[in-house]
Amino acid sequence: MAKEFNSFKSFYPFYLSQHQDPVCRRLHYLGSTIIIIVLLNTLINQQWWQLFWLPVIGYGFAWIGHFVFEKNRPATFKYPLYSLMGDWVMFWQMLTRFFKKQS
Fold it and tell me: Is the distance from CB of 3 to CB of 17 less than 8 angstroms?
């Protein structure tokens, strides 16, 4: 029986446990970065059709990471909202950790 989570705070440790492989985490980071670039480009150029690519990019990179490298089932299948939140929290944590190392 799968565990049920009552809060994002209780879900996030599980989310991180599903992202142990460094390649999987890097693919998530790459997908999130490209999403931001496409979103900004869409807003600047008002090419709204580009929004179609956001879920393809986000899920594409993440699912390759899970199925090929992590060898597990993405948490988004059971916990879509918490998983989306987890993607961005993990992205922020990786980004801030990178810039802390640079200074």
Answer: no
- For residue 66, how many C-alpha atoms fall within 13 Å in the half-sphere facing its CB? 20
Which residues have CB under 8 Å from 25's CB, separation 6+?
19, 65, 90, 94
Encode the chain (103 residues) as per-residue pLDDT tens digits.
467 899 999 999 999 999 999 999 999 999 999 999 999 999 999 999 999 999 999 999 999 999 999 999 999 999 999 999 999 999 999 998 866 766 6
| Nearest alpha carbon to residue 26 among 101, 99, 103, 95 | 95
Residues composing the chain: 103
The answer to whether residues 15 and 83 touch, using CB atoms and an 8 Å cutoff, is yes
pTM of the predicted structure, to 2 decimals? 0.86
Quote the Cα angle for 35-69-95, to 5°.
40
Whole-angstrom CA distances from 44 to 35, 90, 100 are 14, 26, 30
